[in-house]
Each structure stands twice: as structure tokens, then as C-alpha cells.
User: Which sequence fits this backbone?
């Protein structure tokens, strides 16, 4: 039987993010629900108690999707540590767009993930699929053209990703590692840069498909809890 996947979509704001009057988290949750691939899709926001990420919520979350922009500094270090531990224990994490600067992403990756080149003039972005046989790229064309976007460009101060699925080229000539995977502990992480509060990028079917694929890919599999610490009894007779 396929695992029933529970997804939590986190956003720093409740409503009114320019092109998404009900909040980007609501828009993302809707297309995840509409896909029919997930058991539970819930949302959580910064203003809620514990930022909506109480221990019981995270314990019931297989994949956490993180969108943030201006208020990274307002996220409690206690909640960051709680999310980090859940990822290390196996929960999947998908970090979208300006979530690259989130404390939890930086903590897990181990570098200043807020360091990159950027500008916002509405230029065109072409997202190239460079690992077409990867599960996250299933059903995605050779490239995705985004008519208007905010530019993110190199140098992006992340360590070499485990897998580079997408690379973006921008109308102004910049390039960017726009779809990267990392493994931390037992958890899988996917960073995906396309998406913005002023452009309807999350309405694009190809972008939705990438996020849906990523949520399925990041879901933890069932595995026996490994033994750690002192092991007084050997497996074989000595």
C-alpha cells in the first residue's frame, strides 16, 4: 500500500501577498489538494502559536513546504530547532523561492544561504530540466519559460547539492541553480527558486507539477529505527 502523505504548507503571512490575496500558502495547498495525491494538506503561518508548528503537527507532517520572504528573523529559534530535528529524523522539507534565507534552511545546509545575486525587474526566466529522469522532474518539459520573475543569480552560497535538477537562465544573462536536493540525517530537502509574491508563477501547471513531484519524493519511507549509543550485546557469538 502506498503511504498516505501528510503535507504542511508554511507561510510567514496569513493573507495579502500581492498576487495571492488569500496567501501563497492557501494557493499552494489548493493545488496540492486538487492533485488528489495527498492524505492531509494543512497550512500554518508565523502569527499562530508556535508559528503553527506545534510538536504534534510536525510529528504528523511527512513533508513541510516553507515559503517566507521578509520576516525570517521573527521565526523562533526554538521552532527552527524543532523543524531541524524533524528533518534529521526523516521529515521532508521543500524550501521555495525567498525561503532560501530562512533560518531553518541555513541551519540544515550549514552556510549563509541568504547570499546570492538578485534583482526584480520582471525579466523572463527559462528553467532548464537537466536531470529529466529524476522523480521531481517527472512530466516536466525540457524547459519551463516564466514570462516575468524576480531574478536570483549566482554566486549562491550553498554547498554542492546532492542533485541538481534544474538550472535557470534569465533574460539579463544570469544563471542560477534553481532546483537542488540535499540529504540531512534521514530527511530529504528540495530547494526550488521559481515563485514570487507579485507574479502568478504558482498558477503555472509546470511549476505546480514540480512541487507536487517534490512532495512525493521527499516523503519519508518506512524504515526500522536504527540502534545508536552503547550496544552491550554483540550480534554474533564471540
Assistant:
Amino acid at each position: 500500500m502506498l503511504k498516505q502523505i501528510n503535507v504542511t504548507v508554511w507561510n510567514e503571512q496569513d493573507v495579502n501577498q500581492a498576487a495571492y490575496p488569500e496567501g501563497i500558502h492557501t494557493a499552494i495547498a489548493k493545488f496540492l489538494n486538487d492533485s488528489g495525491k495527498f492524505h492531509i494538506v494543512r497550512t500554518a503561518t508565523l502569527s499562530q502559536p508556535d508559528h503553527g508548528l506545534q510538536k504534534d503537527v510536525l510529528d504528523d507532517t511527512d513533508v513541510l513546504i516553507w515559503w517566507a520572504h521578509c520576516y525570517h528573523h521573527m521565526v523562533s529559534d526554538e521552532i527552527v530547532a524543532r523543524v531541524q530535528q524533524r528533518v534529521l529524523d526523516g521529515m521532508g522539507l521543500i524550501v521555495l523561492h525567498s525561503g532560501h534565507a530562512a533560518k531553518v534552511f541555513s541551519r540544515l545546509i550549514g552556510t549563509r544561504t541568504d547570499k546570492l545575486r538578485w534583482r526584480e525587474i520582471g525579466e523572463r526566466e527559462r528553467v532548464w530540466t537537466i536531470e529529466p529522469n529524476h522523480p521531481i522532474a517527472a512530466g516536466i518539459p525540457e524547459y519551463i519559460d516564466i514570462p516575468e520573475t524576480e531574478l536570483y543569480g549566482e554566486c549562491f552560497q550553498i554547498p554542492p547539492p546532492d542533485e541538481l535538477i534544474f538550472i535557470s537562465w534569465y533574460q539579463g544573462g544570469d544563471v542560477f541553480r534553481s532546483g537542488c536536493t540535499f540529504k540531512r540525517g534521514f530527511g530529504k530537502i528540495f530547494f526550488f527558486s521559481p515563485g514570487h509574491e507579485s507574479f502568478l508563477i504558482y498558477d503555472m501547471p509546470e511549476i505546480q507539477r514540480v512541487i507536487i513531484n517534490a512532495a512525493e519524493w521527499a516523503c519519508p519511507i518506512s524504515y526500522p529505527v536504527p540502534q545508536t549509543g552503547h550496544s552491550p550485546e554483540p550480534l554474533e557469538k564471540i
In short: The helical segments are 24-35, 55-59, 77-89, 103-109, 205-218. The mean pLDDT is 94. The beta strands are 6-11, 40-45, 63-67, 92-96, 117-129, 143-153, 163-170, 175-184, 187-192.
